[in-house]
Amino acid sequence: MSTRKLRGLKVKAVNNLFLMGWSVTRLARLFRTNKARIEQALRLSVSVLTLVAGLSLVLEHGGVQGQGITIPNSFTANTTADPDQVNANFAALANDALNRTGGTMTGTFNSLDVKPTTDNARDLGSSSLQYRDLYLGNSLLLSGATAPALSASGKGRIYFDSTLNAFLASENGAAYASLGVLKLLANNSGTDTTATATNVASKAITGLTQKDSLLVVVDSNSVTQATATLNLYSATDSVSIASVDGGSAIAAGNFQKSVTWISCHEQNATTVSAISMLFNDATSATNGIVRWQSPTLATNWTGNWTLALRQGGVTAGGTFHFSWKVYRIFGQ
């Protein structure tokens, strides 16, 4: 055996015995040398141990970054390391590290956030290597986006549209469509005593298509004194879209309900049609009345505008009570 290999074996033996608890003095007697030579052999080994034991690892595989591993002990180069501290460092590495064998990362993430190194740049799985099931204990959050490619045949794709503010789905290669038919946009109630025409509730409308409709349900009640006209109203253009008062003032003590369907003409994005069905608990003459209006707006149906519930004025001493619900009906 060469002198170099023999020296290498002696350094390794000195290190192993030292880690087992042998003192420098005892090692010097065993190898029939002085303590300075033993300490020199240990320093050769500690320089490697220091590099390994002092690491704070950050695991990265396929662009997924894990949490750093905490190493309990650090050492100063060219000094003798405490074997218990070295063993503790190796134990921390063994317990917390993931293993990579043959290109495959194995191990378990415990209480770690798995984050990509770059936002919106990494995928989970691929078209040919897919995960089977996804188990979530809370919610799935999707950021708004523009329409991606349609789904492939026999598959589906879902995304949250940043313009429509709604979930859309492509099924079996078909065009994107809303996941639901109805979406609640507003649900408000309150009272008003203003003697002049006032918008008592309003809702900003945006992102409609010409195929979409609005469904508005209004409950109203005039207490002690009458309330004049009640309309669904474009606050943006100051135009009445639908009369929902039965054609007359709401008498004191009367309760009425209206259901109104509002849609846009296919040929003209500023012309709307509104069909209202009205019910009144005071007289059967207005129960079941259907009214139709077709106003022209200055603002496109597909633009940004505000729908309001507008009462025409409450007689002094009276109180107008109302509630309304505004739904979007997806037409595509």
Notable characteristics:
single chain, 332 residues, alpha+beta, Jelly Rolls, 6-stranded antiparallel beta sheet, 4-stranded mixed beta sheet, 19 strands, 17% helix, disordered N terminus
Q: Can you characterise this structure?
A:
- With 332 residues, the protein is an alpha+beta fold.
- The protein folds into three domains: 3-99, no CATH class; 142-179, no CATH class; 182-329, Jelly Rolls.
- Helices cover 17% and strands 33% of the residues.
- It is built from four helices and 19 strands.
- The protein has helices at residues 3-19, 24-30, 35-53, 83-96; strands at residues 60-61, 64-65, 99-101, 104-106, 115-116, 144-145, 156-161, 166-171, 177-178, 182-192, 198-205, 213-223, 230-234, 239-243, 255-264, 272-280, 289-293, 305-311, 319-329.
- The protein has a six-stranded antiparallel beta sheet with strand order 10-19-12-15-16-17, with no helix packed on it.
- A hairpin with a 4-residue loop joins strand 13 and strand 14.
- Helix 2 packs across helix 3 (35-53).
- The longest helix is centred in the N-terminal third of the chain and has 19 residues, at 35-53.
